[in-house]
Specification:
The structure holds 2 protein chains of 2 kinds. Chain A is α/β, with parallel strands linked by helices. Chain A is 38% helix and 18% strand. Chain A has 2 domains: 1-252, Transferase(Phosphotransferase), domain 1; 261-460, 3-Layer(aba) Sandwich (Rossmann fold). By secondary structure, chain B is mainly alpha-helical. The chains are: A alpha/beta, B mainly alpha.
């Protein structure tokens, strides 16, 4: 049987690991985790987590042989999530949802005599319209008196990046890319403005926490520290304090570049509705299962697909647009759309040990269909990317492509050319079609009346 | 075997120690901190009125209390 453990990041966990067998995801639970697993299942915690939509379901299976039989206790088959996103692709509001959900899970676990031992932001995913835990082995039995083992991780993975985004710049969510185990608290402390020290939560969980880490860096935990000084009440207060701190961070959207795009754009309501109808007819023709909308802005076109129950990722470079879209997704209870921050000219790379812990964007594809609407001029003109490069990249990540060509006469292109010399002699419809025809077969072509723009449906060759 | 890595004495450089100690130090303080915060909020909202972002409240409610029973992680 073909078993593959190589693509997963769970290799650090002594409790068990993920593997794929014939393309299906399984998790081996090791003997060392047996008692904790049995407590999770028998204490009612698992049932409550599932009932409240806080963790992915799993079933125990007997038909798969363990990849490492000498350490194996059980094999489970967890429900797979549609798409794994990473914290450096989330807007601040998404961070907030993931952090509050993590604290809620921690509190629920404590009610059942367990502690959330792993508060990694990578274990929380936005799945079917809500945040949930994807690592079944994140709990251990609670020992009264012992502080929270995942406190440091929670502060590094959630609080530090969120505070920096809220206090310094919303785009610094990207820092989570640099520090794979969360932003070190001493780094975060140095970046934060002085006045943030007057917030009790930040003062304690970031600044004093960092100082304490530094002071005790070379000292081991003594017996004394686990002998009852930190009782269950203290633990609940700690969770509550973290919750208040997370909630106190300002998530207001300010006027970012694209968040007002649809309000400030010049093309008419009619042309916009026309474009939606064309895109919808192309989607209906192909009936994809998965869509990536590149340059989705606030998700106006992503929603056409997600409303049909097609799982859609709405990528945009602008955290403000992603936040707006995320609010809309939550309000609509849209279970099929995930808005994410992505700079297509520098997409998420493969990260971590041997480049295997976090996947690059392209490794998380290919997808059935890509939407590239009002995008080509940004890539070709703002970023000097030749059509060949754009076509080759899109060919790699999708089977079908809906792409809009925007001529130089369009006011949006004119705007881009205003501040620079026009060196783009090949930016015209003839060369666009001939270059894309090398990688794609053009199936349909539809002009948007009154705009000079053309929407194409293509299939890879 | 002790499976808890934080209590293994062989970890000669334990970055978790400081994170443990701060929690013990905070244990007493936190109760006061949370209580003060609640009162402070009441005082502030008395003078400023309640200007909370209702969109945000709704989102938080789903994440914190599972506001919407219609959504679940069960397929279908």
């Amino acid at each position: 049987m073909n078993q593959d453990v190589s693509e997963f990041s769970s290799f650090r966990d002594p409790s068990g690991f993920l593997f794929k067998s014939e393309g299906i995801l399984f998790r081996q639970i090791n003997n060392s985790y047996k008692d904790d697993y049995e407590h999770l299942m028998s204490s009612g915690l698992y049932d409550d987590l599932i009932k409240q939509g806080l963790m992915v379901l799993h079933e125990e299976v007997l038909y798969i042989s363990a990849p490492q039989p000498s350490t194996a206790y059980k094999i489970i088959k967890p429900q797979e999530v549609d798409f794994i996103s990473y914290p450096y692709e989330w807007c601040l509001l998404q961070f907030r949802g993931a952090a509050l959900t993590t604290l809620r899970i921690a509190k629920l676990a404590l009610d059942h005599g367990m502690i959330l031992k792993d508060a990694s932001a990578y274990n929380i995913q936005f799945h079917r319209g809500r945040w949930c835990l994807i690592d079944t082995l994140s709990f251990e039995r609670y020992e009264e008196g012992k502080p929270w083992v995942a406190y440091k991780q929670f502060c590094q993975h959630f609080l530090a990046p969120m505070a920096i985004m809220a206090y310094k710049d919303i785009r610094l969510g990207l820092m989570s890319r640099l520090f794979i185990d969360g932003i070190p608290l001493d780094v975060a402390s140095k970046l934060m403005p002085f006045h943030s020290k007057f917030r009790f939560g930040l003062l304690t969980h970031l600044y004093l926490h960092a100082r304490s880490q530094k002071r005790y860096a070379d000292k081991a935990v003594s017996e004394d520290m686990k002998s009852g000084k930190f009782n269950q009440q203290s633990m609940l207060k700690l969770f509550e304090s973290l919750r208040q701190t997370v909630k106190s961070l300002n998530t207001k959207l300010d006027g970012t570049e694209w968040a007002n795009y649809y309000e400030s754009t010049n093309y008419s309501e009619k042309a916009f509705e026309e474009k939606k109808a064309i895109v919808e007819s192309f989607i209906d023709l192909v009936k994809p299962n998965t869509v990536w909308d590149l340059g989705a802005n606030i998700g106006e076109f992503s929603r056409i697909a997600s409303k049909k129950g097609i799982y859609t990722i709405a990528f945009d470079i602008d955290p403000g647009a992603v936040a707006k879209n995320y609010i809309q997704v939550r309000q609509d209870r849209d279970m099929y759309q995930l808005p994410l921050i992505m700079d297509l000219t520098n997409p998420s790379p493969a990260l971590g040990w041997a480049h295997q812990e976090r996947k690059a964007l392209v490794e998380r594809g290919p997808v059935d269909m890509v939407l590239a609407l009002a995008l080509i001029h940004h890539l070709a003109i703002s970023n000097n990317l030749p059509f060949e490069k754009i076509a080759k990249f899109l060919e790699k990540i999708c089977k079908y492509l809906i792409i809009e060509f925007i001529p130089k006469s369009d006011s949006q292109v004119a705007k881009l050319l205003k501040s620079r010399e026009d060196i783009f002699n090949d930016y015209n419809i003839i060369s666009f079609e001939s270059v894309f025809a090398q990688c794609f077969e053009i199936l349909k072509k539809h002009a948007i009346p009154g705009s000079g723009r053309i929407v194409y449906l293509m299939r890879i060759k | 075997m002790n499976s808890n890595i934080f209590f293994r004495p062989l970890l000669y450089l334990d970055p978790g120690t400081g994170s443990f100690i701060i929690q013990i130090l905070l244990a007493g303080l936190l109760g006061i901190g949370v209580a003060v915060k609640v009162y402070w909020k009441k005082i502030v909202s008395f003078f400023k009125g309640n200007k909370e972002d209702s969109n945000l409240d709704r989102l938080d409610e789903i994440d914190e209390y599972g506001g919407d029973p219609k959504i679940s992680n069960v397929d279908g």
